[in-house]
Specification:
5 strands, about 20% helix
């Protein structure tokens, strides 16, 4: 599980390692906020949390092509 402070520059420059299909990078500033990076070059923001029953849930917020990291972080805060 990779962790990093998700900034616009970081999101632009990160790529998926050659030996993996996808990887999740969790934000160090906001618990549960993450960026999924795929080997195809696609990047998607998600929020991961446990519901009232304790079940792990993950909700897609949107792609990094459409949303910047600030917009995605605000959407994640609303979901949490």
């Amino acid at each position: 599980m990779a962790k990093a402070h998700l900034t616009p520059k970081f999101v632009r420059e990160i790529t998926c390692p050659a030996d993996k299909k996808r990887m999740d990078v969790f934000d160090t500033e906001m618990v549960g906020f993450l960026l999924e990076v795929r080997d195809s070059g696609g990047k998607t923001y998600h929020v991961r949390y446990r519901n009232q029953r304790g079940t792990l849930r993950q909700v897609k917020i949107g792609t990094a092509q459409i949303l910047n990291v600030g917009e995605a972080r605000k959407a994640a805060q609303k979901l949490l």
